[in-house]
Design brief:
Topoisomerase I, domain 3; Rossmann fold; 36% helix; alpha+beta
Amino acid sequence: MSILVIVESPAKIKKISSYLGQGYVIAASFGHVRDLPSSKAEIPQSHQNVPWAMLGIDVANNFKPLYVPSSSKIQQIERLKLLAQSATQILLATDPDREGEAIAWHLEQVLKPTVPTLRITFNEITEDAVKKAVQNPRQIDLQLVAAQATRRMVDRLFGFKVSPVLSRALEPKLSAGRVQSVAVKLLAERELERMRFGSASYCQLYADLKLEAGVSFKAQLFSVGEQLVAQGKDFNSKGQLKVADRLILEKKQADELAAALKGQTVTVQTLEQKPFSQSPAAPFITSSLQQEGSRKLGFSAEQTMKVAQTLYEGGHITYMRTDSPNLSDEALSAARKAVLARFGEGSVPENPRQYASKNSNAQEAHEAIRPSGKVFKSPEQTGLHGEFLELYTLIYLRTLASQMNNAEGYYTTAILKGDTRLGPVSLGARGKTILEKGYLALYQESSDEEDNRSSLPEMQVGESAKVQKLEVKQTKTQPPARYSEAGLIQALEKGGIGRPSTYAAIMANILQRGYCSKRKNTLIATWKGIAVTQYLEGSFADLLDYGFTKMMEQGLDSIAAGEGKRIPYLQAFWDTLEPKLRRPASMSALNVPHLEQFKLFYRSSQLELVYGTQKILLSSLDEPDQLTLQKAKELLGLEVPLEAKPKKKTAKKAGKKTDEISEAVEVGA
């Protein structure tokens, strides 16, 4: 006789068996063993003629679910039943999250054990963690099970009820999803925002300056006379100046100023230094790991999670689905010891750093993602290779850096003034000087907008500098950047939309269904994605509302905490959804900026452009913002008049203000 321990993945069996030894049998469920029906073949004979059986939810009977064994798991279920018959106790050791809790409950329902059956969880697969879990079993948490079941049923109701409506309106085999459709909406809105964007052209003048001491640095022209030179941030989305007191530098004027400045001497007029103290980023949670995996390693969210899953199952890292940035006392000690061994005394603050989630919806039952064990293995000690070594190294460095000292330094803003035959001008330079690297010696968090400022040389007010070289750059204001995969995950998390553990699957799904395309690491909404979004907003606006989606997530958290109830939650959702199913709209022309004189229809993976009796079919895979008004006219063979060049606004003179001067200096922007 033995104790049966059931885990989710067979990859864990060997390691856990070695920790527990004789008297334990370790087996795997291979994930979920029961679910709502996925096909007619899975519906039991007793429900073959029940109208709601394929949906799997009896809406009229308090949303009673119909759970059926997954067809691919029948043999494994029978094997687990045989093992259960010879066990003296069963320990359900599925993953330590809502899904894992639900799998444990379904296992108990399927196996119908006659021996004591308890739940154990461990956040890392180490000998200490596994043995501690076995010594501290508990009952299945039915609140977590209810939260998972509620989420599953909401997603089923949304998908099964809305997707057919969407498919009838646009094209077959389209799908809608509670979080998926909101993610596509974010991409579609960004693409339309880019189409509405009006670009403005302007010049920037850069100068290489050399101080009397012989040290060189770069500066940028920011005022001519009393007028500040317009920068990109001074224009609105229509290409117009936000304020009238900026000078739009034309190419001719910029060239003349460059010629007038060449070889001239400028003098440091003002010098401002502001100290900064920069704290390290928190240890990884699921969403931040996906973002950094994308930015630093070029991994998709799906790849990051697959690699992290393997690292967890191999005992290298703690569980990778977590909203908590907290570290246990054991982990804090291990991180600080590793830092001290590497950088010596004084490299960590006196007290360990503790972190709290910035997300009000965070589920903080677990630790952050970190190297496992009481002593962290360096990347070289793990024996890992390839993508596994890359991701482990990222996690290792981030964890250590989170316990290191702040980076200390100061920002410098220098304003230099000179006189030319065209009048007085001012140049500005900004720099960042790091005095103490602190955690930056080990790790720097990435972002879509990096701060690449270098330090400025030491200088004094009144000191002179010679203008060595000048460069005129013609540039345009840029439309809002499309989302990277990391950026979209960040936007979803910030909006409280969905759970980070689902983001990888959502990214993969919207790409696979053609709602967006991917160029390098940029996600681009397709015409299909725009059409799906506009149709759903017309017929199911509430369900795509960001606030409504966030509120739903909060409701699920409330159920998990035992504060909310499953049936009232489902009823409220159904009362919002069901009336809209009875009167769905037909698909009308797309609403596209600047193309109001045309009609655009999305039909069966093609975009139809119509003007009067003229029409043309376009590929739905073209990037939407390439379809400008001029392009549309060319495609239909319409006359394309030369558009008059918009007149530049003459900026009014205004006095300088210290804060405006500091903001206007954008060297290297």
